[in-house]
Structure formats: C-alpha cells, structure tokens
C-alpha cells in the first residue's frame, strides 16, 4: 500500500508534503531529527554510526523525505531509486538502532507537524519502513 493510500481523510489532491507545509516543514523535520540525534543521549549509538559532519546527510535526508511525502522528486533525480534496504545493508541496523531512529523521528515530527492525526499516520508508516531496514539482531 502506498503512502498516499494512508491519507483518505486528507483534502482532495493534497499530498502529505503539502498537508504538512511543504519544503519549509520538511526541512524543519529533517534538521530537527538530526539535532535530536546529535544532542540526545538516547540516540548516542545511532549518532555513532553516521558519518560526520552531518551536513550532507541532513540534506540527503531532506530530499528523501520530500520525495517520500509526495513533494519534488529531486532525491531520485540526483541519486536514483532509493532502494533503502540495499543502501542500508552495509550498516548494522538493529532493532535498538531502529528504535533510536524512531525516537528522533517521533520528536522531530511531533514538534513540527501541527495536525496530530496526520503526524501519527506518517510516523506509523515510517515505523513500518524503519522496521524493514533491520538487518541484524540486537547484540
């Protein structure tokens, strides 16, 4: 089921990207996500596996979220099909790291998206996606 099928209550012809406020809001989510990862001890292990500095990955994540939410497709134009699972296979993605990722995303999403019901639907879909990225058990 595609992301857009999750939004049967959204106004006609409005993508999730548009519903949350477009580029400005997506950029806030992406930046807030990495701000939390950098500052919150709950995400220390997640931060440790990311290349430093985080400037480039912040931008790539913003482009991916933009595309995922139904905005401009700049991510795919620059980097090709996301193939997220394949792109994450070189990294050890454990259930614990997935939970840290979702912790950061939940805080970022809920501090940015005003429509709580929409934020929760997006988070549920992102949780499913993050679950799919797990490729190793916790140690």
Helix-strand blueprint:
Blueprint: H1 16-20, H2 22-39, H3 44-48, H4 55-68, H5 74-79, H6 84-88, H7 95-112, H8 116-133
Give an account of the 3D structure.
With 139 residues, this protein is mostly helical. It is 64% helix and 0% strand. It is built from eight helices and no strands. Helix 2 (22-39) packs across helix 4, helix 2 (22-39) crosses helix 7 (95-112) and helix 7 runs antiparallel to helix 8 (116-133). The N and C termini lie far apart (32 Å).
Whole-number radius of gyration?
15 Å
Choose one word for the global shape: globular
Q: What structural class results from the helix and strand content?
A: mainly alpha
H/E topology pattern: HHHHHHHH
The level of helicity is 55-70%
Largest sheet: none
- Terminal-residue CA separation: 32 Å
The overall pLDDT average reads 92
The portion of residues forming beta strands comes to under 5%
Strand element count: 0
Low-confidence spans: pLDDT under 50, at least 5 residues? none
How many helices? The count is 8
Core attributes:
single chain; 139 residues; mainly alpha
